[in-house]
């Protein structure tokens, strides 16, 4: 019997994952990650009949979720442990605040996946003598493909696919990952939970950032940054002043709502200038981009020589890597300056040791997603070094936001990705 450590979040996906793993003959150990941001909450009684609507307001790491996870573990006779990850979450919070202070749009869920769920959890798996780490993510691991190297692929349920948020996993760990629900439709997962009588069967999926109260990230950033003043002007693309804002952390590239200004036609945030504290807005066409660069790249394929290369190998330019794919002068994702912040927190993904990257082709064809909910765009990807790459899109795409991830696919396979500069 193979031992598996399962991250149990108290949601329906990880709960059904526990049952699926048991059905497959695995010995399952459930782990819940507590970030410790809700001090005093653990002292409050968690009523058994907490209504679903109330549960939906809880974050994915709340005491109510811990109680749900424990009930499921008890129902399925799975050993259950709660892990204290407060220090690790504090570092992710530092990254989150620093990115907004730099005028960028962070993605803490990807960082959490990369650093904690598929980083620290392996430490605990080794302590428990577990061969595998499993989660309730909607994604798939294919073993023994054409190259014999494990491949990260999209979930069967494309509407729930979470592979975009998993690009940062260290590729040497792919063979030790299990995603039991990735082969199932979401409605089937809920159906299984119903049949098992699990209390989380109709629990809503968590949408908010787990450490941000009341979904108000701007207030959270202001409280964490202290006296740093990020207020400034709202200007048009030609520099014409249009108004003022009380903090550029309220905005992200592509944002339309919440501008607090009236126009005859839709206007969008097209640029955030941390150095001048200006927020630049314009028409939708002003958001159009045909290329981007990304840093802190992570590649998940072992043998690039077997990749289907549709691009022109002669398409070169910029600071090309050498043939061995050695690391170049990759700048950190939060390299943009910010008034009052002389040193920004390092991006957590840069703190994870990675083995030498695979040999990269001069250019290759891929479909690239620029946000979790964006559609994939056909593009040519040009590695600039082992840690940086340029994407040239076949068509204009809208809403490219520094701080978000650019993730490259070959069909349903995740090739890798990086953080948009």
Task: Write a structural description.
The protein is an alpha/beta fold and 421 residues long. It has two domains: 3-213, 3-Layer(aba) Sandwich (Rossmann fold), CATH 3.40.50.620; 287-420, Elongation Factor Tu (Ef-tu), domain 3, CATH 2.40.30. Helices cover 21% and strands 24% of the residues. The protein contains seven helices and 17 strands. The strands form four sheets. It has a six-stranded antiparallel barrel with strand order 12-15-14-13-16-17. Strands 3-2-1-4-7 form a five-stranded parallel beta sheet, sandwiched between helices. Strand 5 and strand 6 (151-154) form a beta hairpin. Helix 1 crosses helix 6 (186-196) and helix 4 (86-101) runs antiparallel to helix 5.
Characteristics of this structure?
421 residues; alpha/beta; Rossmann fold; Elongation Factor Tu (Ef-tu), domain 3; six-stranded antiparallel beta barrel; five-stranded parallel sheet; 7 helices
Characterize this entry briefly.
The chain is of the alpha/beta class.
The total of helices stands at 7
Number of strands: 17
CATH topology of the largest domain: Rossmann fold
**Structural class, please?**
alpha/beta
What would CATH call the class of the largest domain?
A: Alpha Beta
Can you identify the CATH superfamily of the largest domain? Answer: HUPs
CATH architecture assignment name of the largest domain: 3-Layer(aba) Sandwich
Distance N to C terminus: 46 Å
**H-E order:** EHEHHEHHEEEEHHEEEEEEEEEE
Shape category: globular
Strand order of the largest sheet: 12-15-14-13-16-17
Subunit arrangement of the protein: single chain
Question: Rg, please?
Answer: 22 Å
Q: What is the beta-strand fraction?
A: 15-25%
- How many structural domains in the coordinates? 2
* Average pLDDT over all residues: 83
Low-pLDDT ranges:
39-58, 305-344
Biggest sheet overview: 6 strands, antiparallel, barrel
Please give the share of residues in helix: 10-25%
